[in-house]
Specification:
The chain is an alpha+beta fold. It contains 23 helices and 17 strands. Helices cover about 50% and strands about 15% of the residues. The strands form 4 sheets. A 6-stranded mixed beta sheet has the order 12-14-13-15-16-17, with helices on both faces. The longest helix has about 35 residues. The radius of gyration is 28 Å and the shape is globular. It starts with 6 loop residues before the first helix and ends with a helix.
């Protein structure tokens, strides 16, 4: 049997759900873990055609037909292999590659690749338990990792030298470079990972195809990953998926956290269905892979601004994959903590409460618009409605799309146009704001809506409600009101800079880092802001 380059067909299987492909021709109904319908390949009245989304295959118990998305399109539409691939590529929005047979050389190269990465993982783990890896071992154990966890996830240590380049000196350099473990400089081959805590990256079949290295000295970036190779594509690889796959199926959901350590700790403390993207960038491919296993997802992010932004992006990505049976939720870990810290300090029960209290997708999107737009102004409502309309348009199921649209329309009528906006309870802690300035700001927004439109981003960042009807009318003129807003914005900016300065000094003392240049830069910014503030001070004191 000829072997073909299957990277593109694998990508099609990852991108496309077999349910979506078959449902175009065969109406399917979910019963238990599978979907059922009447077989398109023989006449029947009682559905015996079963489709398993997780495994990506169909089977008819009546006529015995069996296959995946490619064979289904070939058989149901009477197409040749390449024609079927072309049709599926169009559905997935992918460009057709030039198909060719795999050469024996390519097959051997892939086998060599896996042998090198497997051996490298073994070398790294042995070094972790050696003298050179003492600091790395202490670090990972202090993070709550047992020897059993270290061995299961094959965690290791890459020293400062060129251990991989030296060990594989008898291997052709192009094969080493192809794995991403070694690069070539002016002085010859050198290791890409140096002085890093090493996390092997497995593909869905449990083979090591890449590595993620964590810095141990506080330097940035905190993590570096193997660059994309023939067998590793970061946008299509989910950390921990090989360990979580069965649990995702069994627990009827997946949980997505932000980092490798969080994912491992969650998997080993009551949440085996947890995975993480590689780095901070969640992609459409990641969502597609997870939705093939299960369309119920809990996104669990840190409660800071970065976590909020990541959640909004995740919501945008997941919308095209929504079905009426989907259950998408968002959980946030507040107080500057992450799942790893919650598990260590408060235990599994605390983490379970965070997951159980997660906000459903529809409520999350509603909260987003109420938090980020001034709904009590026409311009704010218009912007919010445009955002919701864009979100709804991403839902591919038209009937379900219509239901979501009606839900939002009902909320808009009851809460926006009756001026009874639902109070948004922030999941992140924000600094308290003085009552007097806030009352003045509320009165300015109510009296001068053009100012609220101009300074929309700043006003929404204060996280206050502008629906209070008992705020006294301001006696400030339009010009004075705007100067008041600008001066208050400058005060908040100076507060932020001072906090940033304190964090830099604290980090520098902790890690023995020279921070003079950074502190000088912040001091200059503070000085500039204070000069501007002095010009407006007389207005603020009126």
């Amino acid at each position: 049997m000829s072997k073909y380059d299957n990277s593109f067909t694998d990508e099609l299987r990852q991108r496309l759900s077999i349910i979506d492909v078959i449902n175009r021709r065969v109406p399917l109904v979910k019963k238990g873990q599978n979907y059922w319908g009447c077989c398109p390949f023989h006449n029947e009245k009682t559905p015996s055609f079963s489709v398993n989304e997780d495994k990506g295959f169909y089977h008819c118990f009546g006529c015995g037909e069996h296959g995946d998305i490619i064979s289904f399109v070939m058989k149901s539409e009477n197409l040749e292999f390449k024609e079927a691939i072309k049709e599926l590529a169009d559905m997935a929005g992918l460009k057709m590659p030039e198909f060719r047979q795999k050469t024996q050389q390519q097959i051997e190269a892939e086998e060599t690749y896996v042998k090198i990465t497997e051996k490298a993982a073994e070398i790294y783990q042995n070094l972790l338990y050696g003298e050179s890896g003492r600091v790395a071992l202490d670090y990972i154990k202090n993070r709550g990792f047992s020897d059993e966890m270290i061995k299961k996830y094959r965690i290791g240590y890459a020293p400062r030298g060129n251990v991989i380049a030296s060990h594989f000196s008898n291997i052709k350099i192009d094969k080493l470079i192809a794995t991403g473990l070694v690069r070539v400089g002016d002085r010859g081959p050198y290791d890409f990972f140096r002085d890093k805590l090493m996390f092997p990256i497995f593909n869905a079949h449990g083979q090591i195809v890449a590595f993620s290295g964590r810095s141990l000295d506080g330097s940035e970036p905190k993590y570096i990953n193997t660059t994309d190779t023939e067998l590793f594509h970061k946008r299509q690889t989910i950390f921990g998926f090989n360990f979580a796959r069965e649990s995702i199926h069994r627990n009827n959901r997946s949980i997505i956290v932000e980092g490798q350590i969080d994912a491992i700790q969650m998997q080993n403390h009551g949440f085996p269905e947890t995975v993480a993207p590689l780095g901070t960038a969640l992609t459409e491919d990641h969502i597609a892979i997870l939705c093939k296993s299960n369309r119920n997802i809990v996104f669990c992010f840190d409660g800071d601004n970065a976590g909020q932004k990541a959640a909004i992006r995740a919501a945008t990505l997941v919308l095209p994959f929504l079905r009426e049976t989907s259950d998408i939720k968002f959980a946030f870990v507040t107080g500057g903590k992450d799942p790893d810290e919650i598990l260590k300090t408060h235990g599994e029960s605390a983490m379970r409460k965070i997951i159980d209290d997660a906000t459903p997708l529809i409520d999350f999107l509603w909260n987003v618009v109420n938090k980020n737009y001034l709904i009590n102004t026409p311009g704010g409502r218009t912007s919010a409605e445009k955002y919701l309309k864009d979100c709804i348009s991403k839902i591919s199921d038209k009937i379900f799309q219509n239901e979501i649209e009606q839900e939002f329309n009902q909320r808009k009528f009851n809460q926006w146009h009756k001026w009874k906006k639902t109070e948004y309870k922030p999941t992140i802690e924000l600094p308290d704001t003085d009552i007097m300035p806030i009352n003045i700001i509320k009165s300015i927004v109510q009296k001068y809506p053009m100012i609220s439109e101009k300074y929309l981003d700043f006003l929404t960042s204060l996280n206050i409600s502008f629906d209070d009807e008992n705020v006294p009318d301001t006696d400030l003129s339009l010009d004075a009101a705007e100067k008041f807003i600008v001066s208050y914005k400058l005060r908040k900016y100076v507060e932020k800079l001072n906090l940033e300065k304190q964090e830099i000094i604290s980090n520098a003392l902790k890690n023995n880092i020279d921070c003079k240049e950074s502190i000088s830069e912040i001091d200059n910014k503070i000085s500039d802001a204070n000069e501007k503030l002095e010009l407006l001070l007389d207005i603020n004191n009126k």
